[in-house]
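Data card: per-record layout.
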Amino acid sequence: MIIARIAGATRVIGQSQGYLGLPLRDELREVSIGGETVRCRAMVTAWEPTPDEVERIKSGAPIYLCVLGIAHPPVMLDVGEVPE
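The structure for this 84-residue chain is written out next.
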């Protein structure tokens, strides 16, 4: 996957640590937890699959989410709008 610049990015993280930098958008999201809708803070990033990854996804390959460490935070995967 290739890091993309998300529309409305509010900051870029990781550059000061020597990484490429990850543009993200801070936002409030409404999510259902235990049947109750709550508002929580979220950091949203955008990723673009490479042409090879697109072909593998079209052929049924799964998309993996890797969280580094041993404590798993709540995460969500979503599909964005089609680029113009």
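Known properties of this structure: The beta strands are 2-4, 11-13, 22-33, 36-44, 46-48. The chain has a mean pLDDT of 93.

See the next section for split statistics.
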